[in-house]
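job 3f2a | input accepted
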Amino acid sequence: MKIRILSSALDDLYEGRLFYEKQGEGLGEYFLDSLFSDIDSLTLYGGIHPTFFGYHRMLSKRFPYAIYYKLEDKSVTVVWRVLDLRRNPRKIRKSLEK
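job 3f2a | predicted structure (98 res):
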């Protein structure tokens, strides 16, 4: 299965990296490495996660983030958003409606 990451998800990852880099030097890169590792696992496990707001949601293993994705023709996983779960649930829902 192939993975396609939309610009909205890349923007989310960039914001997360900036946040964690401010917390400690090198933590932003660790954040990106961890999230991309989680995203890469979708090649094997895409489609098995529960759905929320019309998207499959996979929880990150090391950070309080969720990866929202959809399957396209059962051969491509499209990552729509990578959102911080500490946000207000209304903001998460609104982010996914765009």
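job 3f2a | The domain at 2-97 is CATH 3.30.2310.20 (YaeB-like fold).
job 3f2a | closed
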